[in-house]
């Protein structure tokens, strides 16, 4: 056995080739029955060639000759010789040489850079056996240098340097040429060519300089803020801030997919840390198509103390950039996962461009050039359409969809030219960038504008400077909307024709805190907005208009599809399917802005249509207009249990099927999550849930794991004949069961543009709408809130925002069951005074390390405030605690006591009755007893009649009406009480009918005093008393009322029949 030998034959180097064994004095091969990398590892180590790179069979290095010595070799990898591994015996099976085995070994066991200033620069040396060998520069290129830097965790290669740049070596020279692709993880994985006759000397030794770091991260903060740390030579350490500037911070934020840099905080904001501090430069480059990774040259750790570590706070906005232009202009590119692509420009608009410019800290959008203004896109062309309100901080916060969008030409790329970094004025806390509280920039800070005499001239300058049209309104912000920072400008006096607010005089720029003067607000004409609210999607709902800083509704008088078409077109929702009447999507509240709208259908803005004028109407909110647009989409599974069935999508007013071509389990999982049916699903076949009968809308849907809903997945365009036949319809069975919620279809929020803050918040899984797991709507998806630091202050804000009174308890650990989908918020820290959960400090959206078992929940008192029916008030609920059990004995005692009292009352009545019967048996019936009862009835009726006739007045045309009342009056008065005519001119006054009309249904169309003949006919048949005296009293009362009560407005168009009043 000691005479046995092993060699590699017919390879490109001594460390690669066919495996051959010399046994009993004869060379033979090894058969590849079970040949694997563990077997190859033993071979490479045995021949002194380092570790195994790959194991090969099927005569990879050609067929050998002689016997097959070993067959079915099975090594563990730690054997000293191949024949020590398990096998069936020497020469036991004569295997054809077509199955001869081979190996490729690394040839060396170590790699290092020596002679440089750091561990990431120096002369390349590889360890072979017990010696270190240099590499010839003629056998090495930049790709090989990249692999070396990557393997040593030293970042990126700055370049190979020949001519013994870091000094000559002293031992042997490696006799192989490295032919790397550049993406290998180790140098041993590169293809090599053996050069036995090379003529290199140590003066040709190759050297490499790496960037000095192997990655970067933000520590001790959030995903997008913290102390900057680099991995240098395999060790993490902080970057010294001596060479750190805003440009470097901005580029690092973009490399981390965190948007742009907002600030580079001072020392120790994110802690000192206990790791090395690398002192070096951070150089960032930019080419024509993409931002390159920043390169750091480490200089050592001695000169920089821990307190000088660099830090950054990024905006947190992912995946948006401008290329092929300047820093603030260019072609728009967005990123899905790791893939950047050009955005299609066919539906790119100025609102979305404004959001992207602000996201990139480039001011506002000046223009959106059409065509390939900044060049055609190369690579992926994303067809997403963004529907932005203009107030979002990130482009991805806007509602967006790609499903069914038409194909896009490379010449239809989205682009934008932003105003740049010189933005000096802004409006905050409004519904758009063109309304809100005024702030002015000075240096790197934003300051408040204070003025006790702020007027329309001042506001006109602000609107002009912001390119927001003309000023419509000035106002003093509410207390909770006022600023708290330094004052930038005070006591402005503008003539109204200035181009910038700073040109007005006099002014005073300050940095101290404000005194008693007030913040100022402006509403410009370009702030006008339109939305569809309270519907199942952003393209269906009640029409609301934002005008002069107030949202209001539209009356449905003369409302038709021409009007609805303009609304749908303005919102990018296609055309109108239905013009809804009579508050079909629920009654609004507050202002009614427009009435008698009469659009032709060609208007670009809804408010360009003819109407009565702003605020002029004769309607109530039960006449609020609504719209269903063709681009409204919905999703369902039919012929199953709701979480299994045939997949159907609602589009263009019809439900239809989706084709299964290219449908994957990833797409099925996204659909199941969207439907609230768990996190996974399987595709069923063979008409598992029956055949469809409607259109077959979509095909070739391509979802990726980073998509959050089906609407974001690209597909072929909408086509009612997308499938070849019904056999291609999609059938899905989800892993979960749909959770029952108290949410109604009108309060769901499929898109943020159709939601108020209240509608983006819900509680799920509780006993009613005021208790349950807290969920919020963000980026097109419902998600939960982590219970870290969740307390009563946070719960109070949630309950208040939901209109559910104060909080009873703040619950943790998914008290109402685990949620699904994203965990949007963590470490919420409300003070309790906020009006919305969105105002509370928290970690950035989606930046959570929690699990669904840590869901936050609330129990509210349940006193829901509503404007729809102020007379109805829900009673507070008792909290689910031991208090309810402690109250049980008290409740039982009260019930038993009430029953006892009822029994005593019945017994007392029976005793009185028996006594009366006994008295009645002794004397005749009293004939006045009936008269006494009738006299009481007369007194009550007289008082009612007198009250009634004093509440009406005679009109000039002898039409008597009640004055108008509103059923939703804020004082909570009885709906039957008489109210004064309102300033809104409601048109639902009720006429009152004559109680003396024998039919009991005719309207009063004559004077109130009754004729004597009529009075004589109305007598009581039992008592014999007359209404004559009552009639005369009423007549005199009505005459007095004529001079004091005003008439109702005769222009109201929805007079309702009153309830007839009769006398008995």
From TrEMBL:
Residue ranges of every copy of the SRCR domain listed in the record: 6-106, 111-211, 216-315, 320-419, 425-525, 530-630, 635-735, 761-861
Gene3D superfamilies linked: SRCR-like domain
TM regions (residue ranges): 887-909
GO cellular component assignments: cytoplasm; extracellular region; plasma membrane
Family annotation (InterPro entries): SRCR (IPR001190), SRCR-like_dom_sf (IPR036772)
Membrane-topology descriptor: Single-pass type I membrane protein
Annotated localization: Cell membrane; Secreted
Region Disordered: start-end pairs: 964-1064
Bias (Basic and acidic residues) ranges: 984-993
SMART domains for this protein: SR
Sorted UniProt keywords: Cell membrane, Disulfide bond, Glycoprotein, Membrane, Repeat, Secreted, Signal, Transmembrane, Transmembrane helix
Short name of any one Pfam family annotated for the protein: SRCR
Bias (Polar residues) ranges: 1021-1034
Signal sequence interval, chain numbering: none
Disulphide bridges, residue numbers: 31-95, 44-105, 75-85, 136-200, 149-210, 180-190, 240-304, 253-314, 284-294, 344-408, 357-418, 388-398, 463-524, 494-504, 555-619, 568-629, 599-609, 659-723, 703-713, 786-850, 799-860, 830-840
PROSITE patterns, per the entry: SRCR_1, SRCR_2
Chief location: membrane
This protein's name: SRCR domain-containing protein
Organism: Alligator mississippiensis
